[in-house]
Amino acid sequence: MQKISAIILGLTAMLSACGSGNTQKGAESTDTADTLKTFVFNGNPIVRDKFTADPAPMVHDGRLYLYVGHDEFYEGQDSASGGKEFNITEWLCYSTDDMKTWTDHGSVLRPTDFEWAVGEAWASQVVEKDGKFYYYTTVQGGEPYVGKAVGVAVSDSPTGPFVDAIGRPLVSDDMTDNGKRGWWNDIDPTVLIDGDDAWLCWGNGTCFLAKLKLNMVEIDGEIEVVDLPKYVEGPWLHKVNDTYYLTYASIGKGGETIAYATAPSMKGPWTPRGELTGAAENSFTIHPGIVEFNGAWYLFYHNAVLELDGHKGAIGRRSVCVDTLRYDADGLMIPVVQTR
Prior knowledge:
Blueprint: H1 4-11, H2 24-27, E1 37-40, E2 51-60, E3 63-71, E4 91-96, E5 101-109, E6 117-129, E7 132-141, E8 147-155, E9 163-164, E10 190-194, E11 197-202, E12 207-212, E13 219-226, E14 231-240, E15 243-252, E16 255-263, E17 271-275, E18 289-293, E19 296-303, E20 319-325
Antiparallel strand pairs: 1-5, 2-3, 3-4, 4-5, 6-7, 7-8, 8-9, 10-11, 11-12, 12-13, 14-15, 15-16, 16-17, 18-19, 19-20
């Protein structure tokens, strides 16, 4: 998550033994209308030619699609503060059918694709329903929607093009309690489709939860608040059998860790289950993305260990990783050790 400055202001896999190295640059081919760059993954981080953050996996037709924010370096970034550490102007997409060979689909959405937005490509999630792909994401709203907002774009393809679905925010600052985080609490949307129902969860400082209408682009009913210990941001919803999981970035010692809660239904009650990971290496923030693919479960997250073009990882220069995720006999997630 790319909101560390705001946090500071407000708060003062298969891969367990992947080895090191990634043959990404050597495996790239020239991008043309008929070919896309590919690379082979041999160890975390996944992507080695760009800084990436806030992973959001989705499986469709036997292929895993991974959406990430593009952390972009600029001169003067290392001494920047107050939110200027981040320079994220687009969302990227990668895909694989075997967790080994990945295809780089490039940029699939930008904040400027929303006419009412003025910037900040923060955390997102893409889901599919009835042949449409809905891209729920965080942007900075312009007049009259000043503040962080949740937008939704739609496409007929998982790789776009995505277009603004409603011409305005799905969630804007005037719709939520302007409490702990004020104008920037409406960030980091996650969506779970559960049968005929769809649920939207989001928020920094406050964890908001609401049902979506069948059209996937309107809130259905009241916006609720889920009380979770040490909740900061970055919620992620998923379901295994009859258990619902709400995983999120929680405040730990000196930075964020990933924690989670479970419930028998989306209406709760939510039972805190403790930490799933420790802090991310070299990164204050961490962001979960969980998915089942080819019979295995995976936890995607980011750290900041990548060095690229002489620039080391930093608050605004992160790197997306993945490790296997397992459950015990009681359905609890077994803590994940982050690997290289």
